[in-house]
Fold this protein.
Amino acid sequence: MAKTVFVLGAGASKEAGAPLMSEFLDRANSLDLSKHEKEDIDNVFKAIQKLKVVHYNSYVDLDNIETVFGLIEMGTLINRLADVPLNELEGLKKSIQRLIVQTLDLSLKMKIDPENTLRQLPAPCYHKFASTLKDKNAQAFSVITFNYDMVIDYAFRYYGIPIDYCLEEVQNNQALKLLKLHGSLNWGKCECGTTYVLPWDKFKYTSSFLTIGATLLSQIHCENKTIEPVLVPPTWNKGAYHSELRNVWRQAAKELSEAENIFIIGYSLPESDIFFKYLFALGTVGKAFLKKIWVYNPDPAVENRFKALIGKGIEKKFKFIQKPFSEVIYSIFNIID
Ligand SMILES: [Zn+2]
């Protein structure tokens, strides 16, 4: 069976209201929160101020949450982060994760009627995407995404498309594989080591908006143990998340290796994401049956980044289309049919 893999980046969720990584801190700062709710955001901004003093003469983009998240990760690993006291490092890491959760919850505003959780239409792009996929054989498609948000998850649920996150090795062969390489707003890790997936019927509503991340963090898996979000910074040190996400990453490499068509949409291949470069290189190496690797992005600069990544063997199959997700959804399905 010919297989098609979609790789979806932040550009694909932008239309649904998700901030891009470069806009994230501004968005977090503009949220209307109580003093108590603002605690995590304040912690992160204080750390950024300290980092700015240290990094005034080095090339580190402290306005981008990817960079800040990556620096805090590295700081907890090497036990040093500007003049942030060492005993505050772990707390700072939790703060930045909670900042992401909170910002996504409040930015996406998935307004869903608690009496009928399927009444709301999915966000337009994903709506088209899922409505087209629903009549197709789920096993012929898989989706790899870098997005933490639940917009695509909801669209699949709306159309009754079963999904498998592949967090465990045992898989549901009837389901569409939705591989969230950087984690998901509804995935948590209990202190006991278990990865916990918050089911839809547990999501809470605040004035009829879904608050997925906040609900997750209020769950109890084992008594007296806390649940932390499973959100991986897009930068380098993914080793720390090895145990939770190993199966997701393995499956992503397997899907890439078996693909006849790979469509990469709204993913800009940032220099810092060496992980994806390796995953891609190992996943697609020497695949004779790959027919198309097409990249869709409104930013023309993305083309050259992918050209540098694509190996000699598959360069004839590469095509760059300078368009956003919303303009290309139907045409992609026409290409496959
Ligand atoms: Zn537990």
In short: Residues 190, 192, 194, 221-222, 225 surround zinc ion (CB under 6 Å). The chain has two domains: 4-16+123-182+232-336, 21-108. The first strand starts at residue 4 and ends at 8. The mean pLDDT is 84.
